[in-house]
Design brief:
The chain is built from 23 helices and three strands. It is globular, with a radius of gyration of 23 Å. By secondary structure, it is mainly alpha-helical. Strand 1 and strand 2 form a beta hairpin.
């Protein structure tokens, strides 16, 4: 039993789920992923930032920027392709991803290697291996970083539990399994903090600030709104060196120096694609319906809206606390965080304030087809320490309160893991657990695993489900909650989600649509290298 409860078993189960799960369905034409992957192809195939040739060869995708060149009084002027009348005749038209460019550039060498093995490279192979090297493996590295940090400030046993809970009980799992920027931004942001923390403690020398600056710049280059998280880490540095102005200036100078290469590259990318270092692709969105979401404020961030705030946090479909209710413990742990390290409380408060403002001030309806409020993904690692402190406090007070907190961790892993297997949640579904994840398995549409290249479903998908069940069992046995309390909490969590499930036409239609595009339905395998 002791061997079963070892950290290696818990981390091994998480790693196995990360490495084997492959929730991708070509029929969805996932725009957030394919626009970046198409640019990776363009970088290697034609050496260009624009994806015009790739679109002609492999098909149109969404989430694009379109820049037109209009002739006005004999001068070339950049204008939008859609949404407004051009001031003159259009002579050129260029397409780019609307996203920050880092993930495209990181996927380019992956594509280059694949191209040596298969030409043309299949879409499935590019998606799988790009995810593996750009989002999955970095996310596993993040778990290692978090464990090292937690073991310095919490008990070793609780540190292990928190890492497993974060790995499968939050949006981290879903976005590690997607070729999107959200989880990679979380990795880079936490790496920024970790480098600054190690340097401030004296474990790393002055070069640690350069590493922190490089990671901070990478965070913004990966996702523009990562700048909000960087401000939170900056608040921690300022709080640690408050009134120590020479030491603070030294840190700021080195961080700035470390950030310059990537920030310079980002500005050059903007200038080359969008005509100005300070203009992003969101100014030239190819879909006129999306342009209004990004007008005004910072990338469309305006005044707070109560509906957006409430739905982002509590919606039974994708609310942060609806799928991962254990994160509510973070608010209970803020007092203990202040006593442990006031600077950490400052950072957490700034991160919470900025992200709460962002999630309530940006168009909630633009976050569709996602597991959870995706733009809050970089915030979640920084909630884990106060969660751990809350669990410590509950354990000191007695078994019942701690058991309830432990059960929330177990229930979050089970719920978010099941939804992560689906990973694409239509907007018109009532709940992602009961209206999608459970019915899909019940109807024989088991999770897609890379094992599905050699073993048909349901056997290949059953491996993933068994791994998830084993992980929840490991977590429950590690935390040892009172069984009656644990069962009651899990039933309450899943029961509340069930109450909000309508099984109406929206649920039925979304379920039918996903069945029609499911990569490996019952009795089927798939060929990773099959050319589309």
């Amino acid at each position: 039993m002791q061997r079963w409860l070892s950290p290696q078993v818990g981390f091994g189960l998480v790693a196995a789920l990360y490495l084997l799960s492959f929730p991708y369905h070509p029929g969805l034409r996932s725009p957030n992923e394919l626009c970046r992957l198409w640019q990776a192809r363009s970088l290697i195939d034609s050496g260009t930032l624009s994806i015009n040739q790739t679109l002609r060869q492999y098909g149109m995708v969404g989430d694009l920027s379109c820049v037109a060149v209009a002739m006005v009084d004999g001068q070339r002027t950049l204008v939008r392709c859609v949404g407004e009348q051009p001031p003159g005749p259009i002579v050129e038209q260029w397409y780019y991803p609307s996203k920050a460019p880092l993930t495209s550039f990181l996927a380019a060498p992956v594509y280059a290697v694949l191209k040596q093995l298969q030409n043309p490279v299949s879409e499935l192979a590019q998606v799988f291996f790009s995810r593996l090297f750009v989002t999955v493996l970095p996310s596993l590295w993040l778990l290692w970083l978090m464990r090292r940090f937690f073991r310095e400030v919490l008990s070793a046993e609780l540190a292990d539990v928190l890492v497993v809970t974060y790995g499968l009980g939050t949006m981290a799992f879903s976005y590690a399994e997607s070729f999107m920027s959200h989880q990679l931004t979380a990795v880079l942001l936490f790496a920024t903090f970790y480098a600054a923390w190690r340097t401030e403690r004296g474990a790393w020398r002055w070069w640690g600030w350069l590493v922190a600056g490089l990671a901070a710049a990478a965070t913004v280059t990966c996702e523009y709104t990562g700048a909000l998280g960087v401000l939170g880490v900056a608040a921690w540095v300022i709080a640690k060196r408050w009134r120590q102005w020479p030491r603070l200036a030294h840190a700021v100078g080195l961080v700035t120096l470390g950030a310059l290469p990537l920030i310079g590259g980002l500005l050059a990318y903007h200038a080359a694609c969008f005509g100005s270092p300070f203009t992003s692709g969101y100014k030239f969105l190819n879909d006129a319906g999306y342009q209004g979401w990004h007008v005004g404020g910072f990338l469309g961030i305006r005044l707070p809206d109560a509906r957006a705030f409430a739905l982002s946090l509590f919606s039974p479909l994708r609310g942060l606390f609806a799928l991962s209710p254990f994160l509510l413990l973070a608010f209970m742990g803020l007092g203990a965080l202040r006593r442990k390290d006031g600077a950490l409380l400052v950072m957490t408060a700034v991160l919470l304030a900025l992200n709460a403002y962002f999630t309530s001030s940006f168009a909630y309806d633009s976050w569709g087809w996602t597991v959870g409020p995706r733009h809050l993904t970089p915030l979640v690692p920084f909630l884990m320490l106060p969660v751990g402190l809350a669990l410590e406090r509950l354990r000191e007070r007695g078994r019942l309160g701690f058991s309830a907190g432990a059960a929330l961790c177990v229930s979050s892993v089970l719920a978010t893991g099941l939804v992560g297997f689906v990973n694409y949640v239509p907007d018109d579904v009532s709940t992602s657990v009961w209206a999608l994840a459970v019915p899909l398995i019940s109807d024989g549409y088991w999770p897609v695993s890379i094992l599905g290249t050699v073993v048909s479903n349901p056997a290949a998908g059953a491996v993933l489900v068994l791994l998830l069940v084993a992980c929840t069992a490991w977590l429950a046995m590690k935390l040892k909650p009172v069984p009656v309390v644990a069962v009651a909490i899990i039933v309450l969590h899943f029961g509340a989600l069930r109450l909000f499930t309508r099984y109406d036409s929206g649920d039925v239609g979304a379920l039918g649509f996903l069945k029609n595009v499911w990569l490996a339905p019952k009795g089927a395998t798939f060929d990773l290298f099959k050319k589309q």
